[in-house]
Amino acid sequence: MAKGLKAFTMLILGSLRDLAPIILVIAFFQLVVLQQPIPNVERILVGLALVMLGLTFFIQGLQMGLFPIGETMAGALTRKGSLFWLLAFAFLLGFGTTVAEPALIAVAAEAAEAAAEGGFVAANETAKSDYALGLRMTVAFSVGIAILLGVFRILKGWPIHYLIIGGYVAVVLLTLCSPTRDRRCRV
Q1: pLDDT digits over 116-173, tens only?
Q2: Distance (Å, whole) CA 54 – CA 59
Q3: pLDDT of 18-27, one tens digit each?
Q4: What is the span of the domain harbouring residue 51?
Q5: Cα–Cα distances in Å, from 84 out to 120, 151, 156?
Q6: Does 181 have pLDDT greater than 80?
């Protein structure tokens, strides 16, 4: 019993370590930048405890249930020698895990609220829900592509700086087409 309790405590501390940067950033901006006290401290602490427990159980569930089967499947696909299925697995694994990411779901919902308040989307639930889903799908697609490229890079033996430089070039080119006051591409 004591061994199990110690292991659970270590898992909780791991979740706290993972959440610490977020907690510190929020506390810094609330206390130092905004110079305001933290409202509803008791409720925030209860919510933080629930997030830590939820994250702990989520990570433990992944390690017990999904990671082993994912590793087995990746090994089997590698032995099979099918580049298509290996890359499809890499993309879908990245896409699927990102779509299901609880933090992304929460951030997308908050972004939809902010977009509605700013007048960028209609303030009804359908528009906000569509906006949040579109944001989640865009991020998930991007993560899927990044993992697919990472696997392909490893298989081909390409140096990583080629992909990093390519990514920077793509971002610079995209900034040339970012919206301006007249909404036209500057290229």
Answers
A1: 998 999 999 999 999 999 999 999 999 999 999 988 988 888 898 888 998 899 889 8
A2: 9
A3: 889 989 999 9
A4: 1-80
A5: 40, 12, 14
A6: no
Which residue in the block uniquely carries the two structure tokens 């249930």? Answer: 65
Residue type, 135: L
29 and 76, same domain (yes or no): yes
Query: In this structure, are 67 and 21 located in the same domain?
Result: yes
Q: Is the dihedral of CA 82, 86, 92, 96 positive or negative?
A: positive
Domain total of the chain: 3
Same domain, 1 and 30: yes
Q: How far apart are alpha carbons 116 and 166 in whole angstroms?
A: 34
Shared domain for 87 and 150, answered yes or no, is yes
Q: Which residues contact 146 (CB under 8 A, 6 or more apart)?
A: 94
- Neighbouring residues of 22: CB distance < 8 A, sequence distance ≥ 6: none
